[in-house]
Amino acid sequence: MRKCLEEGEIAVELRNEDEGRAACKEKLVDLVLWIEREVPHDPARTFGPERCDFTLTNHGDLDDYYARIEAFARFAGLRWPSNQCDGGK
Fold it and tell me: Average of pLDDT values for 25-40?
């Protein structure tokens, strides 16, 4: 996770509880967001929504998902480029 955060401000696909606890303890992350969607069970995943600050559902299409993420970013006061999800149009 540390390497991922050296490259940008967002780390994705956190699956291991020990990694999540360490990231929080070391204050590498300010906020942990779980994206809930229907996917096959991953036996390697030991980290889940119960350890996150917020949960967003992702059961619609891609436009709905982007709208939910953008709304959450505004709510949380996060920077969100207006062209982030439209291919820069």
Answer: 88
